[in-house]
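In response to the reviewer comment on reproducibility (Comment 2.3), we provide here a single inverse folding case reported in full, input and output, so that an independent group could reproduce the run without further information from us. The structure tokens appear first.
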């Protein structure tokens, strides 16, 4: 049975620019010796805790002990006010007849709130959601995708993943899944398609209205390779 798996932030909801703005605001204050904006563009897709740990190691300053909680709470408050679905995501999700799942490096409460607040939960219906708290090593480690496959009874080769970050593409690719690199969110720069292809993306998708054709192409290629 084939399945399409979606990352959430930057794929279903246009949250990364909002999250990045919040991170810049806090980290510029806490780690004033770093060029936060430049460093963050490479780190998106990692968990907040891993981003903070990574940047703190580069700085001469120390973060507050509750830095992750402070930042996540601030991001979630901003998402509750400003978050929008990625253009075309609702229609794209509804247009796919295969089973679906969501695999995110965010915490579960944030994913559930993001899908509910943008009405994408209606498009998905009862959808399995896997989040960073469920594994010791989140994306870019493949563990979260491996967990999803095993709990859903899927072989990785029958899973098509839609991811927007290098960390996400790396994780899904390492888990043995086929990955579409999505570059249609508002935070994406001109170099991102090349980065995602280098990380192992099979195709690049610039707008959600092209997803159905890629799903069909993938299904055909999987069917023909299995005969």
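Designed residues, in position order:
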């Amino acid at each position: 049975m084939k399945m399409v798996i979606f990352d959430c932030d930057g794929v279903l909801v246009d949250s990364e620019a909002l999250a990045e703005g919040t991170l810049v605001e806090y980290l510029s204050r806490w780690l004033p010796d770093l060029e936060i904006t430049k460093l963050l563009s490479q780190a998106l897709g990692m968990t907040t805790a891993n981003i903070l740990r990574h940047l703190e190691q580069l700085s001469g300053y120390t973060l507050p002990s509750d830095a992750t909680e402070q930042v996540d709470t601030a991001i979630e408050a901003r998402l509750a006010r400003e978050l929008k679905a990625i253009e075309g995501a609702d229609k794209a999700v509804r247009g796919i007849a295969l089973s679906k799942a969501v695999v995110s490096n965010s915490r579960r409460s944030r994913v559930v709130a993001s899908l509910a607040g943008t009405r994408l939960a209606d498009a998905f219906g009862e959808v399995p959601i896997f989040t960073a708290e469920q594994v010791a090593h989140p994306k870019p480690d493949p563990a979260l995708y491996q967990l999803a496959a095993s709990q859903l009874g899927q072989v990785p080769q029958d899973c098509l993943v839609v991811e927007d970050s290098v960390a996400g593409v790396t994780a899904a690719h390492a888990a043995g899944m086929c990955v579409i690199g999505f570059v249609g969110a508002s935070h994406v720069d001109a170099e991102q398609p090349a980065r995602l292809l280098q990380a192992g993306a099979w195709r690049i998708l610039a707008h959600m209205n092209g997803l159905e054709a890629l799903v069909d192409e993938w299904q055909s290629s999987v069917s023909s390779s299995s005969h």
